[in-house]
Sequence to fold (874 residues):
Amino acid sequence: MTWLLVVEQILNGLQLGVMLFLVAAGLTLVFGIMNLVNLAHGSLYMIGAYFAVAFLGWTGSFAASVVLTLLATLVVGMLVEVVALRTLYERDHLDQVLATFGLILFFNELVAIVWGRAALFASVPPALGGFVELLPGLRYPVYRAVIILVGLAVALLLYVVVGRTRLGMLIRAGASNRTMVAALGVNIRLLYTVVFGFGAALAGLGGLMAGPIYTVQPGMGEELLIEVLVVIVIGGIGSIRGALVGAVVVGMVDTLGRAFLKPMLGTVVSPAAADSAGPALASMLIYILMAAVLYFRPQGLFPAVRSR
Amino acid sequence: MAEPLLAVRGLRKRFGGLVATDGVDVDVGEGETLAIIGPNGAGKTTLIGQLAGDVRPDAGTIRFAGADVTALSAAARSHRGLARSFQITSIFREFSALDNVALAVQAHAGHSFRFWQAARAEASLREPARAILERVGLGGRADVVAGTLAHGEQRQLEIAMALATRPRLLLLDEPVAGMGLDESQRMVELLRALRGHHTIVLVEHDMDVVFALADRISVLVYGRVLATGAPDAIRLDAEVRRAYLGEGQPA
Amino acid sequence: MTRPRRGLVTLAALVALAVVPLIAGLANQPFYLDLFRRIMIFAIAAVSLDIILGYGGMVSLGHAAYLGIGAYAVAVPALHGVHSAWVQWPLAMALSALAALIIGAVSLRTSGVYFIMITLAFAQMLYYIGISIEPWGGDDGMRLARRSQLGGVLDLADPHVFYYVVLAMLAVLLLVGERVIEARFGTVIRAVKSNEPRLQAIGVAAFRYKLAAFVLAGAVCGLAGALLANQTEYLTPSYMHWTRSGDIIVMVILGGMGTLAGPVLGAATFLLLENVLAAWTVHWQIILGPLLVLVVLFARGGLLSLLPGGGARDG
Fold:
């Protein structure tokens, strides 16, 4: 186990974290402001991945496919919000869980109808292929490095928008007291639609970038969704900062755990035991982490909403 | 001098930057009726919450019936003899009025790990529940679904549920809130009949109700007790008048 | 729908179920015997979930975990030559109860969406454990060597006998369930859903009752898992996947939650739809998805509320 390997895994953890953040940011905003549990957020991530593959196929240009994918997921997000989700704001969480679960079924099947059930192949764009030497002896894939940069850029952008613009002020106000914001005469419906669409576009961006690394197939959203839910619970519902911290923590714990737990276990128990227990324990790590956070700090690390 | 039934010392509670309770001392003797009044935002609801066990104080002690109950849950305090009614009506809306009260009786009649006999068939629960409903004036409405009762009747049901737990002390949070004149008078009659049998701590805005029922009044302003005394003394107290005059009409 | 009316619906359903094998035999369609047996097994799982979800208001997205535990409790002993149902099935219920005790003790400290997520997380944990245990088939799952043995008289290998055993269990569950709902315990559980702060204020320490309900629900679902393993003679960790929990929730809601007949109706509807629609198109789930959304938005009481006399439920 060399230090370079550790650094590489740390970078991978950061990359995973940044991707989780993109999806978590939208979800936590929607939850914090609109009090909506949206299980179908993972579907928006999935749609982003599929759109990216499709648009790349049609236009041949990576840049064009990025722009088109973002626009398309923004539109789909807003459509879903207007058509299916508006009535759910007033309902209790159970209704929201059920209805959005129905949406998951719908989108998974829709995607399977259009593109089939087999995994699609998404290639790394040639411009972003290859390796870059970050440290002597450490060659890291350019694509992954770009993901990290993009993610951090988005985090910065969100920080500026949410922290320093009027829209961001409305968002923060809405997260702590939505009736007050409505009473102030703000067009709440429009605000909600915009926030939701924005979150959808972020998720789509995540899916777009995830395509070349993970498999593009129906149901890919749900695997990610659970990790994203863990991120939000750990970070605190409604908080972008919490989503970032939570995402990086989860990304790190998951990646480093998977990479190093088995070898580490191998030093204290037999190789056979480490072989079976290692992966199982590694997959469980983030849930154990979530349970621990919930036990000691039930509102998460940076709760945006005071009393719930 | 017998120890007061309820003795509160140095109670403090803050929510972020807001100090809701700022060193409150209260004594309530057995059998007396204490009214707590104060302008809006004085911290009355938070105080009731801490006495009932919903809100954990940051500092201070609450002694009830000779024991320190500060760390006890609401359910545990109920078993010590402390009952409460809520300012915003809080009942089991889907259950009938009788079921509501019977459940309160059930809560104090042993445990509920019984899986076979129908609770509705237990006479030892139904009979006392019926009697209490009669006492509060809801005898004829026993089988009505609680959510469909009139507002005033729901407030009466609140009292009934509190009584069903056979309390020594009743913590009543604005019992006549939202009631019209007739309903308020009926509630006052009911509470007057309870005086003496139970110790009562009453939070109220309606001064007529307060002066009709209270043995003593405590005035709460900015989370602190400004003055405590007999109703007439409070009525004439200069500081109290100043605290209220700035607020305009009490509700 | 009033209680006596619902009782009639339940009775009618049980009678209908009892008659299915005869009809299937006459029409020479053994497939339907299999299908309805599957329906009944899921009905048992759905009823167990309804106890905590419909009556107690606890939205658990991890209930399928007990299906998995129950199934493994049958398959693993069978792998080692232990085939007696008298060992396997109580083991299934005991292990599920234990898991529910641990999961519940942690999860029930939270509420609302946190509760949903933490139950989800626990189920996923069990799923991952299941995947990684190679001797038990890992990701691919394992076959059931033999169906559970009930001793001389009843042979589960006979599809009819198995059918009636499952039917008997469902009937007993519904009967006992009805008593429990009306007893002190059920009253407290219903009060938890109605107004938990009020329940605490009148002196009921709700946590222990919620936990007890959680454990009971888990145990019954474990039994369903044991039956399911016998039904399919095969099991995989996917029995515990959270989307399977979602399916069971769908059955409860579709049929009508907060009732005993509802989950039965919901399980039947869900699985019949799955079979009928699947015959038309492989993509039948695209209909199920929006259907679920519509039911949630417009028919909150589920199918039961749409039947004549449907509507408000009494206490």
